[in-house]
């Protein structure tokens, strides 16, 4: 009888250990946590670095931009590899509201967080600028695959001069034409 009890106790211990291990996470499995900082480092592989240069009809040229059309400036804040530190030639300068946005691409790809920038004139039925943080609106911007006709959430609004620029990537030597957009605070005077 004692042997049978010991066998039952041992059997129950093994069963309990298996059950508990099945319910717990694998202690040897390493997990990759995504921090907010990593989340803002977007994959811009689907971004149209160059564009046709077409701008919305309602977009107004800047009257007295810090960087006039034809001048050069250094990009101080790159939205993608190869931008930061590159020399930009100013192709267009426009006064508007620029928005940092987050959205679910219409392609079904992963959510894009804190994309810089779309401008007020690229939003559909947006009313008066600036829109407040948290506002949801659709965009007809096509800077990235899956952006056009997406519903976006406004993360930040900046009243500024935005620039369309040409530059050569510092990482791969690719010539980028009519890149939309960089803000005035993302440029500095070329030496």
TrEMBL record:
Residues 69-120, 134-184 form the DUF1541 domain. Keywords: Signal. Pfam families: DUF1541. Residues 28-47 have a biased composition (Basic and acidic residues). The lineage of its organism: Bacteria, Bacillati, Bacillota, Bacilli, Bacillales. It comes from the Bacteria. Residues 28-55 are annotated as: Disordered. Residues 1-24 form the signal peptide. This is DUF1541 domain-containing protein.
């Amino acid at each position: 009888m004692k042997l049978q009890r010991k066998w039952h106790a041992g059997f129950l211990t093994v069963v309990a250990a298996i059950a508990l291990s099945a319910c717990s996470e694998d202690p040897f499995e390493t997990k990759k946590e995504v921090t907010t900082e990593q989340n803002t480092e977007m994959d811009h592989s689907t971004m149209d670095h160059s564009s046709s240069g077409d701008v919305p009809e309602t977009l107004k040229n800047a009257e007295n931009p810090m960087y006039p059309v034809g001048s050069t400036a250094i990009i101080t804040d790159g939205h993608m590899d190869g931008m930061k530190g590159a020399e930009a030639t100013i192709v267009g300068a426009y006064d508007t509201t620029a928005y940092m946005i987050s959205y679910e691409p219409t392609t079904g790809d992963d959510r894009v967080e804190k994309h810089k920038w779309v401008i007020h004139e690229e939003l559909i039925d947006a009313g008066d600028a600036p829109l407040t943080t948290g506002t949801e609106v659709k965009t007809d911007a096509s800077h990235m695959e899956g952006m056009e006709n997406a519903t976006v959430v406004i993360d930040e609004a900046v009243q500024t001069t935005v620039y369309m620029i040409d530059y050569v990537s510092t990482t791969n030597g690719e010539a980028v034409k009519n890149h939309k957009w960089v803000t005035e605070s993302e440029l500095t005077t070329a030496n």
